[in-house]
Amino acid sequence: MPTIEERLAFVQQELNSAGREASFCEDRGFGGGNPEPYRASIAKEFQEEPQLQRVLPALWRDFEADYRSFFSRSDGLHELDFQFARAALKPSHTTAATWIRTPLQVHAWDEGTYILRQTPGTALDGPFLYLLIGAEKALLVDTGAPIAEGSYWPYLIGSTVTGLIERYRAFHGLPSPELLVTHTHWSDRTVAGDTAFTNIFAPVAGPLDLGGRRVTVLDTSGHCEADYSFYDDRAEWLLSGSIFFPGRIQVKHWQEYRASISRLVQFTALNPVTAILGSQLDHPNECDLALSREELMELNDLCRVMGDRPTRTVRSKFILEPQS
């Protein structure tokens, strides 16, 4: 367990790494990203270290004592009908463990497939992260947004992912899988936990073998300059990032977006899809996270009908908001 001094040194190193976040965009293929909000958030959190010194020991003690307190309520494995808390509990000086646990919730689809959510109210939009574990490698898609209280998010997400992988290894009696970390796109909602990990790579369209589990990376730009989706052949999930999810879908590059949605329809015609899962849930009624191929086809038809004249359109599960 890191000491407070080690944590302080870690954050100070981040502040001294001039240009690190700026180079992140080009190094990992996310052209046009703006690292300033991320750098500013680190600086602000460092100023709040006295708070961190009070809560970090409780964070590690309670987290290592009981992972299950993080888990969502579900009737069993292979279930997507889960319940995540829709708001964080307020901090309490007498219930530090409750406060600290609320920023991150975990849903186990099976022993090697996890949906992680940052609780709304502690992080902007309550992003969803995905951990897919194979026999040889594990893949974490996105690392989350800065949290509203304190600067322990990288440690929290890092410890959670490491712990889940270790449980998988122990359960199967296998060597520990190598962890790979990537992103659906560059934004302050997807990279805040990056400092907890070392093996971060830029997504490239094509297959990725995790060992008995194949993930296909798809170029699905349009929401921003560089977007990627991920298809997992074991769960038969399409992880669609911010290009398709329940809520307000903001489209910066309309023609690229239309082409990406069309490619997804073609891809899902050839590959079975049980659920389409986005990186956020921005629906007014906080509806189910999972979308279907039929709803993807509905979106594709809408894009085709609009042609070169996109307009804001409201559907039951999503709101299309073209910006160009």
Looking at this protein, list some descriptive labels.
324 residues, alpha+beta, Metallo-beta-lactamase, Chain A, five-stranded mixed sheet, 13 strands, 20% strand, disordered N terminus
In short:
Helix 1 runs antiparallel to helix 3. Helices cover 33% and strands 20% of the residues.
Biggest sheet features: 5 strands, mixed
Name the helicity range.
25-40%
How much beta, percentage-wise? 15-25%
Instruction: Give me the count of strands.
Output: 13
Order of helices and strands: HHHHHEEEEHEEEEEEHEHEE
Number of domains: 2
Assembly level: single chain
Number of helices: 8
Strand order of the largest sheet: 1-2-3-4-5
By helix and strand content, what is the structural category? alpha+beta
Mean pLDDT: 75
Low-confidence stretches: 1-75, 87-101
How does this model look, in words?
With 324 residues, the chain is an alpha+beta fold. The protein has two domains: 202 residues, no CATH class; 122 residues, 4-Layer Sandwich (Metallo-beta-lactamase, Chain A), CATH 3.60.15. Helix content is 33%, strand content 20%. It contains eight helices and 13 strands. Helix 7 runs antiparallel to helix 8. The longest helix is centred in the middle third of the chain and has 20 residues. The chain is globular, with a radius of gyration of 19 Å. The N terminus is likely disordered.
